Amino acid sequence: MNMKKFAALALAGAMTLSLAACGASTTPAASGSTGSSAAGSSAAASGDAYANLDPVVLKGGDASGVGSAAQKFGELVADKLDSITGGKLTVEYYPNSELGGDMDLQQMMLDGQLDYVVMQTAPAVSFVPAVAVFDLPMVFAKYDGDTIDKVLNSGDFYDQLSQEYTSKNYKLMGFLQNATYRLTTSNKKLDTLDAFKGLSIRTMENSNHMAFWTALGAAPTPLAWPEVYISLQNGTIEAQENAADTCLSANFQEVQKYLNCTNHILYLNQMVMNNEKFNSLDPAYQAALTQAVSEAITELRPTLSDLDKTSKDALVKGGMELVEYPDSFYDQVLALDGVKQLYQKIDTDVNGLGTTLQNALAAAAG
Fold first, then answer.
1. Alpha carbon distance 362, 366 (integer Å)
2. In this structure, are residues 262 and 141 in contact, taking their beta carbons and an 8 Å threshold?
C-alpha cells in the first residue's frame, strides 16, 4: 500500500482542517490483501497496457474509524490499483480523518486537492441532494445483500443516481454493503413502538433522519461524535444509532444497556471521485479504477456480515442485551403516518428516485 503518513501530516497542516470522527472499529485494517487471481493476472499483463503511460499518483481518504469498512474499502482499492497497473497508477491514502471530516474531504475533492473519498451516504446529501434517497427508513430491511448489491451497482437505479452525482462533478465508483444496518443502542428496552416515545437519541444532523425519529415519537438530538460517549454516560442523551462495529469501537457497551436491531438505515459505504479528474485519466487507468473498485467490493462484502456478527457478539458479551424484531415491527413503523409522509417527501425531493429504488428492489428480489 502506498501510505505516506508524513505527507498526510504536511498536507493536513497546510489545509488547516479540523479533524473529525464518524466512528471507529476494533477490527485491524486491511493492508495488502490484494491477492485475487484477476488482479494478479492484470498486473502480469500491465506491461503492455500501461508501458507508454506516465505514472499517476492519486490521493484518497476517509473520515471513518480505524479498521472501519470505509478504510478497508479505500485502502484495498489502492492496493489493487498498484497491482493491476504494475505500480503505474498508485494512491496516497489518508484514513481515519487525517485530513478532516466527511464534509472537509468532499470539498477538498471538489477543489481538486483530493481525488477520491470513501464514506457513508448521508454526508453526501449536502453536495448531491439526490443521495437523500438512502434516507428512506427501512427501505432495505427485508432484502438480502445480493439483491441490494444488484440494484445499487447496476441497472436503472444505479444509472439514474450516477447521473445525479455527475451533475455535481462527482464520479460514483461503487457501493459497498452486505445487508448490515445502523442499530440503536439505548438505556431502556425498545421492544415496542411506545418505548420510543420521548427517547432522547443522538443522530446525524440530517433532517430526514431526524424526521424519522420524530415520527416514532423520539427526540432526535444532533451531537458531535466526540461528545456522544460522555453524554450517554451522564444521561444527557439516552440513546444513539450507528453500525455495530462503530458501537463496539466506541465502547458503548460500557454506557448502554440494550442493542436494538432497528435496521433503519443500510450500513452503506460509497467511493466517489472528482469527475473531472476521472475523465482526465487515460482510458486504461479509468478501466483499472473500475476493476479495482469492483474487485474490492466483491472481496470485502462477505467480511461485512462477519464484522457485524462479531461486533454484536462482543457488545452482548460486554453486557448489552440484544433486541431483535419480527418483520411485523418494520411493517408497523412503515405504516405510521409520519413515516409515510417522510417517504413521500423524500421521493419528491429526489424526483421519484425513491420509487425507482423500491421498484428495482422488488424486481431484483423476484
1. 7
2. no
In which band, very low, low, confident or very high, does the pLDDT at 47 lie, cut at 50, 70 and 90? Answer: low
Q: How far is CA 62 from the centre of its chain?
A: 10
Phi, psi of 307 (to 5 degrees): -65, -40
CATH of 5-178+268-308, one of 3.40.190.170, 3.30.565.10, 3.40.50.10540, 3.40.50.1820: 3.40.190.170
pLDDT number for residue 11: 40
Strand 56-62 versus strand 89-94 pairing type = parallel
Quick check: 14 pLDDT over 70? no
Which residues neighbour 253 within 8 Å (Cβ) at sequence distance 6 or greater? 247, 314, 315, 318, 319, 320
At 77 the pLDDT is 98
Residues 266, 181: Cα–Cα separation, whole Å = 4
What angle, rounded to 10 degrees, do the helices at 353-365 and 145-152 form?
Answer: 130
Helix then strand then coil, % of the chain, to nearest 5: 50, 15, 30
Can you identify the CATH homologous superfamily of domain 181-266+313-339? Bacterial extracellular solute-binding protein, family 7 (3.40.190.170)
> Over 31-95, what HEC string results?
CCCCCCHHHHHHHHCHHHHHCCCCCEEEEEEECCCCCCHHHHHHHHHHHHHHHHCCCCEEEEEEC
Distance CA 123, CA 102 (A): 6
Cell of 157: 437505479
What are the distances in angstroms from CA 280 to CA 7, 273, 284, 364? 24, 12, 11, 35
- Say if residue 183's pLDDT is above 50: yes
pLDDT surpassing 80 at residue 289 = yes
Rounded Cα distance between 93 and 57, Å, is: 10
Contact present, 141 and 181 (Cβ < 8 Å): yes
Question: In the 8-state DSSP scheme, what is residue 113?
Answer: S
Predicted structure pTM score: 0.81
Q: Retrieve residue 19's grid coordinates.
A: 479533524
* Alpha carbons 217 and 220: distance in angstroms, whole number: 9
